[in-house]
Amino acid sequence: DKGTYPFYMLKEIDEQPNVMRRLAQIYLSETGEPVISDKLLNSMKQADRIYIVGAGTSYHAGLVGKRLFENLTQTPTEVHISSEFAYEQPILSKKPFFIFLSQSGETADSREVLVNVNAGGYESLTITNVQNSTLSREATYTLLLHAGPEIAVASTKAYTAQIAIEAILAKALGEADNQIVAQRFDVRHQLGLVATGMQALVDEKSKIEKLAKASFLKTPNAFYIGRGIDWSVSLEAALKLKEISYVQAEGFASGELKHGTIALIEKGTPVIGIITQEKTAGLTRSNLQETMARGAQILTIVSESLAKPGDTLILPDVDPLMSPLLSVVPTQLIAYYTSLNKGLDVDKPRNLAKSVTVE
Ligand code: M6R
């Protein structure tokens, strides 16, 4: 039931702070330690490499997961688009462990990979919102997203729930392996900061609605740019804008623009920089300037501690590894309001289905 909301998507965006709190309650003990079964942790501990597999938004959540696992556990982690992995399987390490990310648990492309993984005798974990879904039943382990039903075709709260669980799991695995970074990573505190920060962002809706009207309503195209984890979020931000607002959008590694794509910048093209990582903040800012010199209209989504006068949207500070949980929220709202103000059916964009059960 949408209640007083015009569309499920907005309701689901608004639910995200509560989903974060719920996940902390379900997956963390009273002292803030991850509650993850020993069996799952032992399987993962034996792995020399983690392979994350997913499609669409779930693939994008995997890109963030790679950073979490590599930083907190030192386990090399690869992320793959399921429809590619299924028929172009990469050379596997000696002891691979597979993580399937899927809101629905029914995505045919991901299932095709799982069938191969099972045939190879490997262990796997499905992180999904749907108990007893196909991917959950067929994997060795399951962790549920507990995000509540996601009805809008555009995935929002499943993305942030997937990242939160990846953070908890990476913390657990890193600690099981005595990694100091993991011991120091206070995931409970971080999820608390994230929930409060998300609330502040969703309370700023009217500001984002105005921004969407001014910069996205009329444009045929747009770019989200960033480096590292911010690049990963750029891909998700662009996908949201494409699928519900029909704006041709690209998520781009900011340093790569000048190697060709900058030719697409015209007078007024919106270029949105996502800036949450100290070591690359200055570089992304110069890349934004390069696009401005070619006529782009530049906007920024920046963590508070890195903010400068003139920045467009400021995000409350959290651990840089958790920043996608906040930086994605304004981009979800930009896509939502652009679609709404174009008079489109936000929840049911053309040509798309909620769950893609064909390959
Ligand atoms: O149910 P899944 O997470 O496996 O679905 C994967 C994609 O089909 C899904 O994320 C899709 O990209 C969304 N429409 C994005 O908003």
From TrEMBL:
<dbReference type="GO" id="GO:0004360">
    <property type="term" value="F:glutamine-fructose-6-phosphate transaminase (isomerizing) activity"/>
</dbReference>
<keyword id="KW-0963">Cytoplasm</keyword>
<feature type="domain" description="SIS">
    <location>
        <begin position="40"/>
        <end position="179"/>
    </location>
</feature>
<comment type="function">
    <text>Catalyzes the first step in hexosamine metabolism, converting fructose-6P into glucosamine-6P using glutamine as a nitrogen source.</text>
</comment>
<keyword id="KW-0032">Aminotransferase</keyword>
<protein>
    <recommendedName>
        <fullName>Glutamine--fructose-6-phosphate aminotransferase [isomerizing]</fullName>
        <ecNumber>2.6.1.16</ecNumber>
    </recommendedName>
</protein>
<keyword id="KW-0808">Transferase</keyword>
<comment type="subunit">
    <text>Homodimer.</text>
</comment>
<feature type="domain" description="SIS">
    <location>
        <begin position="212"/>
        <end position="349"/>
    </location>
</feature>
<keyword id="KW-0315">Glutamine amidotransferase</keyword>
<keyword id="KW-0677">Repeat</keyword>
<feature type="active site" description="For Fru-6P isomerization activity">
    <location>
        <position position="354"/>
    </location>
</feature>
